[in-house]
Give the backbone structure.
Amino acid sequence: MTRREQGRYEISNVPATIRMRQRPGAMIPIATRYERTTFEPDCVDADDARRAELLAPGHPLMDTVLDVTIEGHRQALEAGTLLFDPTDPGTEPRLIVALTAEIVDGTGAVVSKRFEFVTLTPTGGTAVIGPAPYLDLQPLPEHARPGAETALAGGWLADGVEQLATSWAITHAQPNTWNKYAPSWCR
C-alpha cells in the first residue's frame, strides 16, 4: 500500500494468492489493484480526487484477507493477549471480543452484515464499544502477567472465551438484529 491523500491509499498489486482465495459466491471479484482505498467512511469521497473503495467487513478484499489471517494465525488469535488501559482507574477485568453477525436470504446471499466489538466483565456488564477499542490500550507489564493470567484462568473465563461471547451474542445481539431487520408483522 502506498499513501495517497490523507486517509487514502493505493494498492498497486493484490497478490494472486489472495485473489484466488476469494470466498465462493462473492458478488464482486477482488481486483488486481486498487487506485484508491480507505478504512475511513469520511475519506471515500475527497475533494478533487477519485472515489476510494471503503475497505471494511463485507468488502471482498477485506473478507479474504481476514480469512487468510485467521487461518494462518488461529492459535495466536484464540490465545488472545492481556492489555491494560492506563487511563482507567477500575480494577475489574474486561474481555474484548469481535463479533460478526450475518443475515442470509433463502438463496444463500448475505443481505446484511454487522461487525462490532463488545466488552464483557465478570459481573455481567457488557457494552458495544466502537470501532477500534484496543488502540489506546497497552501491553500488560511482564511483572503483572502471572497474577493476571492465574486470576483469569480459574474464574469467569473457565468455560472459555468463545462460549462466553457466543452466549452474549445469542441473548443480546441476535434479538436486536432480528428486531432491526424482521418485517413488522413478524415482531
